[in-house]
Amino acid sequence: MSKKIALISGITGQDGSYLAEFLLEKDYEVHGIVRRASVFNTQRIDHLLDRNGFFLHHGDLCDSSNVGRLIREISPSEVYNLGAQSHVQVSFEVPEYTAQVDGIGTIILLDAIKAHNPKIKFYQASTSELYGKVLETPQSETTPFYPRSPYAAAKLYAYWITKNYREAYDIYACNGILFNHESPRRGETFVTKKITKAVANIYKGNQKFLSLGNLDSKRDWGYAKDYVEMMWLMLQQETADDFVVATGKTYTVRQFVEYAFDEVNISVEWKGIGVDEKGYNKETGEIIVEINPKYFRPTEVDLLLGDPTKAKEKLGWVSKTSLEELVKMMVRYDLKYDTYGGNDK
Ligand code: NDP
Ligand code: GDR
């Protein structure tokens, strides 16, 4: 049987790098779209560059001529749309661009699939940010959406157009509604990596304190490497469907901070309220966490807690990594390395 061919947008990102490794292990031919940048942006996949069956192509989700050509020339069996302006707070600053990449980028890919070969299977990186304002917990495939950012609003369009192309043109197209997932390769401006990196730096004496925004928001944090398996599983079924991917547990940002400092044997003591709250090193009395209002968002998502029952019952998938294990893995990595290169196994 000939090799399956996957095309991944967002291959240079956290999830793209793990998914590429996962598919190469399954003997796929893996193609990825890489944006031209003025500096190297392939750190997370540099260790894959010499692998047989691994190919990179310049491209951009905003460029329909490029995307159409890639779909025609590569003729993939599966497309994973992970490319996005994925930072929620940044989306308030670049709302139109976020809509272009995250929303219109999705229809550009789907339309290219429809035109070239509607038999191509399509995975859309949907998100728990769609739930936004808390209407129900735990959040499942049937919980109503209420986006709270330009990012979430753009992803809402992508979610529905994926469903629509499934219903209108019988394209095998799935939404993975993934809750937050982290790893040593997480981008450094997301809160978990920002915390674990700062903890490592503070421990080594290279940084005095960590500046954060809202400590009270709650997230259902899993491990990215566990989650990419679900992206693949969704595309291997008889019929296309949408799935929540989550751990079923939720923690505050404050708890994440405490767990991370615990890893280097620092206990945090909290004093003050709201923006005046500070975290102190219990032993030395030094300030190690400060609140900076610039990290607060115009509208926040207060509580995310996923219900992964459907993933378990229909695909036999469960999240394997606890938050404690995840924090330990990330802090240990940051104590050892300064970059988020690919070799964190
Ligand atoms: P990252 O931010 O790490 O990676 C995003 C990827 O998209 C990068 O490869 C980036 O390229 C690429 N990209 C950005 N803009 C464009 C564009 N215009 N054209 C083509 N590619 C582009 O995100 P993650 O890996 O964390 O997330 C993957 C996907 O899953 C995203 O769509 C995200 O919104 C979604 N998601 C993520 C969750 C999470 O917790 N991680 C949860 C739910 C959904 P470059 O390297 O050049 O910037
Ligand atoms: P999120 O992740 O917005 O959930 O989106 P992020 O890590 O950015 O924020 C999580 C929570 O932490 C609070 N927070 C801070 N966030 C950042 N980035 N920086 C800070 O200094 C800080 N202080 C507190 C935030 O307010 C928020 O409540 C991620 C992205 O990967 C999306 O692409 C994805 O869709 C969702 O997860 C699911």
UniProtKB/TrEMBL annotation:
<dbReference type="InterPro" id="IPR016040">
    <property type="entry name" value="NAD(P)-bd_dom"/>
</dbReference>
<dbReference type="InterPro" id="IPR036291">
    <property type="entry name" value="NAD(P)-bd_dom_sf"/>
</dbReference>
<keyword id="KW-0521">NADP</keyword>
<comment type="similarity">
    <text>Belongs to the NAD(P)-dependent epimerase/dehydratase family. GDP-mannose 4,6-dehydratase subfamily.</text>
</comment>
<dbReference type="InterPro" id="IPR006368">
    <property type="entry name" value="GDP_Man_deHydtase"/>
</dbReference>
<comment type="function">
    <text>Catalyzes the conversion of GDP-D-mannose to GDP-4-dehydro-6-deoxy-D-mannose.</text>
</comment>
<dbReference type="GO" id="GO:0070401">
    <property type="term" value="F:NADP+ binding"/>
</dbReference>
<protein>
    <recommendedName>
        <fullName>GDP-mannose 4,6-dehydratase</fullName>
        <ecNumber>4.2.1.47</ecNumber>
    </recommendedName>
</protein>
<dbReference type="Pfam" id="PF16363">
    <property type="entry name" value="GDP_Man_Dehyd"/>
</dbReference>
<feature type="domain" description="NAD(P)-binding">
    <location>
        <begin position="7"/>
        <end position="330"/>
    </location>
</feature>
<dbReference type="GO" id="GO:0008446">
    <property type="term" value="F:GDP-mannose 4,6-dehydratase activity"/>
</dbReference>
<keyword id="KW-0456">Lyase</keyword>
<dbReference type="GO" id="GO:0042351">
    <property type="term" value="P:'de novo' GDP-L-fucose biosynthetic process"/>
</dbReference>
